[in-house]
Amino acid sequence: MPGPVAHMAVGLSSYILFKREQDRSRKDSFRLIITCLALSILPDFDFIPGIIANDVNKFHHGISHTLVSSVFIGELSFLILLKIELNINKYRLMVSCLCASVSHPLLDYFSADYSLPYGVPLFWPLSADYYTSPVSLFGSIEKGGKDFTSFVCSLINWNNLRSLAVELFFVLIILSVVIGIRKWQKG
Fold first, then answer.
1. Over the stretch 14-27, which tens digit does the pLDDT of each residue have?
2. For residue 129, how many other CB atoms are within 10 A of its CB?
3. Res. 70: pLDDT tops 90
4. Structural domains of the chain, count
5. Best CA proximity match to 167, nearest among 147, 143, 141, 138
6. Which residues contact residue 147 at a Cβ distance below 8 angstroms, ignoring those fewer than 6 apart?
């Protein structure tokens, strides 16, 4: 599964791709950037209940990694931002929130996964099956340990460093494409 670097790069891209100069103040831009970044990594916060239960992976890749929950969280974030009355076009605001939130399970789908459960439950509640792409864009992050300390220590290894390097390469490609699209849109 990709680490936070790739997830947050796509969250940032969700902001950049739909931003327009005429409907953003600095304060509104900052709020939307933070929202997109948070939405892009939010599903991985399912580690927190596992840490409390002293089994870090117990809840990982559950309901938080489904398209239904991602759309729900993206829409909820959109509605909250509407209440704040940001000076942002509503359509672009909604699309930014949805792209950032839905990107997480989709990136995880396109990743190698060598730990149970394999893949992500993309179509829950329609299907309890876990899905993984036959083509992996990202390597697997090796993780283990039941308690928090052993979990953190398990993350420090050569495989994960290599996966991080691939993610950084992915980030450069995605951000270059998104910035190129933005420049092309401006004419």
1. 888 877 765 557 78
2. 11
3. yes
4. 1
5. 138
6. 54, 56
DSSP 8-state secondary structure symbol assigned to residue 66: S
In the Cβ-directed half-sphere of 35, how many Cα atoms lie within 13 Å?
Answer: 28
Structure tokens at 170: 């992915």
Per DSSP, the residues of 107-170 read HHHTB---SSSPSB-TTTTT----B--SS-SB-PPP---SSHHHHHHHT-SHHHHHHHHHHHHH
Q: Which residues of 138-172 are buried (b: 16+ CB within 10 A; e: fewer)?
A: bbbbebeeeeeeebeeeeeeeebeebbebbeebbe
Structure tokens at 159: 């495989």
Domain that holds residue 66: 4-46+54-135+143-186
The pLDDT of residue 23: 55
